[in-house]
Amino acid sequence: MKKYLVGLTGGIGSGKTTVANGFLTHGITLVDADIVAREVVEPGSPGLEQIRTHFGNSVINGDGTLNRGLLREIVFANPQHREWLNNLLHPMIRTRMLELVEKANSPYVILIAPLLFENGLDRLVNRTLVVDISPEKQIARTMARDKVSETQVNNIIASQMSREDRLAKADDIIDNNGDVAGIEDKVAELHSLYMTLSQSQ
């Protein structure tokens, strides 16, 4: 039977991890696109070797790991390089995520993907859940967490889908402007819904 899949997304600093961990306490398997994206470029992986061949040894650290900062600078400055990298990595990430989904033992699976809509991953899921937060809180949280400037945060926000478009595409929304207890209640409510939906598919 095909797994029932819920795509969890939200802008940077919106609280996706907090919400995802809420589902984890209900015994639900999480598949995180960011973790998979790091996996497919680990030392010795075909992904990393193709990146080395394309960009040269300068993007590989002394310990054999990928120099993410340098690669990010290169691809952000050059749309062709960015397209090449996306064409290489997105299929690898998608394949690996679907393998993990199939191995999951829970009745449904939460797929955590910051760029769920932007990368077309919403086509893989049965339902979408957006974690929403005010832009002011989003900026403040990200600056505190990642120790970055407001300008950097605004650049990241600008590269993501707008809040309005994201909310318009959502099947379900968790408002993260309040306290943690409110999130736990909403997660429990959605967990019941997803259990019902996964059993009736």
From TrEMBL:
Involved pathway(s): Cofactor biosynthesis; coenzyme A biosynthesis; CoA from (R)-pantothenate: step 5/5
Predominant place of localization: cytoplasm
GO biological process: coenzyme A biosynthetic process
Gene label: coaE
GO cellular component: cytoplasm
EC number: 2.7.1.24
One GO MF term: dephospho-CoA kinase activity
Binding site for ATP: 13-18
Pfam families reported for this sequence: CoaE
UniProt function note: Catalyzes the phosphorylation of the 3'-hydroxyl group of dephosphocoenzyme A to form coenzyme A.
CDD domains noted in UniProt: DPCK
HAMAP family referenced in this protein's UniProt entry, alphabetically: Dephospho_CoA_kinase
Subcellular location, record wording: Cytoplasm
The protein, known as: Dephospho-CoA kinase
